[in-house]
Amino acid sequence: RREPLALINLKKKHEETGEEELASRLDHCKAKATRHIFLIRHSQYNLDGRADKDRTLTPLGREQAELTGRRLASLGLKFDQIIHSSMTRATETTEIISKHLPGVKKISTDLLREGAPIEPDPPVSHWKPEAVQYYEDGARIEAAFRNLLMTTCAFVTRALQFPPEGWLRLSLNNGSITHLVIRPNGRVALRTLGDTGFMPPDKITRT
């Protein structure tokens, strides 16, 4: 629902000047810039925490976030905003990264909290949510896609029009960078997926 025609009130248009007015509004609503979206996976966190507030970043996780922040800053791009999950590990990762991107607005949202967007195919033996969780999380994550972004793996499959059931086949390192480019005509290209080449090998984890 981001095509130009969906952004115009057609009822109002018919009450005004007709086709010329419609053409003018369509041109005004057309995307004219290329968008760059960077999806960052949270850094390593304490897996022993019973509640979300206890699942804080480990010392290594904080190092990973520092490295990710430096890498993003080194790209020399002007970032508009950072949208992050309200989960503790995502919030802490964002706080560290944002030190390297001063002045960039931060937005926290529950829509980006981790969940089960769709039953994976093939299934995995170590993770089997109740069926109801797919319905609850799936609706929330779809809302995140439409309004903001999604979790990295699910967003990549959705943006590239790949079968969504394959989202768990994408295994990304902590603190990794995924770069998507959206052209004005709506075409999406994946520049990098889960890049951690900027981290020393002994700092790379996948949890």
TrEMBL record:
Gene Ontology MF, one: protein serine/threonine phosphatase activity
InterPro entries according to UniProt: His_Pase_superF_clade-1 (IPR013078), His_PPase_superfam (IPR029033), Mito_Ser/Thr_phosphatase (IPR051021)
Keyword field: Hydrolase, Necrosis
CDD domains noted in UniProt: HP_PGM_like
Keyword Hydrolase in record: yes
GO annotation, cellular component aspect: mitochondrion
Any single biological process term in GO: programmed cell death
Protein EC: 3.1.3.16
Pfam families attached to this UniProt entry: His_Phos_1 (PF00300)
Similarity-based family: Belongs to the phosphoglycerate mutase family. BPG-dependent PGAM subfamily.
Identification of the protein by name: Serine/threonine-protein phosphatase PGAM5, mitochondrial
Phylogenetic lineage: Eukaryota, Metazoa, Chordata, Craniata, Vertebrata
